[in-house]
Automatic annotation (TrEMBL):
This is Endoribonuclease YbeY. The gene is ybeY. Keywords: Cytoplasm, Endonuclease, Hydrolase, Metal-binding, Nuclease, Ribosome biogenesis, rRNA processing, Zinc. Zn(2+) binds at H114, H118, H124. Gene3D superfamilies: Metalloproteases ('zincins'), catalytic domain (3.40.390.30). Belongs to the endoribonuclease YbeY family.
Length: 154
């Protein structure tokens, strides 16, 4: 039996932690999405930092829900852990959850899983890639006891 992937995750709060999930929750959600060893930082930010990062790194001048920065994408081939940062913009998560009729906690979990999958090489640029990534996200979320994030009622 293969060893379970290892996670070395630092959780940073770049804003007041009131009402946000705790470090243990973020770690559990990140671990649930692991397929490879990962060393990462998960940073929870406000709208200003989220917008600045999205503008500076993606050329899009608005705060988005989650950004993933991969470092050394071929590291797993050499047996080293994958490394990167996942940035979750709290105000966007809360707004989207309200708009989509979702529990904010479930949306935080989903975006953590989504970011960790990006870190491990998954993407959704094409319909085929999106289908694979969304199916995996749904599987991980339901395995953790959350509803399928792509089956919501507006």
């Amino acid at each position: 039996m293969a060893n379970a992937p290892k996670l070395d995750l630092t959780v940073q709060y770049a804003m007041a932690k009131d009402g946000l999930p705790g470090r243990a929750q973020f770690r559990a959600w990140a671990r649930a999405a692991l397929q490879h060893d990962v060393v990462a930082t998960l940073r929870i930010v406000d709208a200003d930092e989220g917008r600045a990062l999205n503008r500076d790194y993606r050329g899009k001048d608005y705060a988005t829900n989650v950004l993933t920065f991969e470092y050394g994408p071929d590291a797993s081939l050499a047996g080293a852990p994958l490394a990167g940062d996942v940035v979750v913009c709290a105000p966007v998560v809360v707004r989207e959850a309200a708009e989509q009729g979702k529990d904010p906690l479930a949306h935080y979990a989903h975006l953590t899983v989504h970011g960790m999958l990006h870190l491990q090489g998954y993407d959704h640029e094409t319909d085929a890639e999106a289908a694979v990534m969304e199916a995996l996200e749904s599987f991980v979320m339901m395995r953790m006891g959350f509803p399928d994030p792509y089956q919501y009622h507006e």
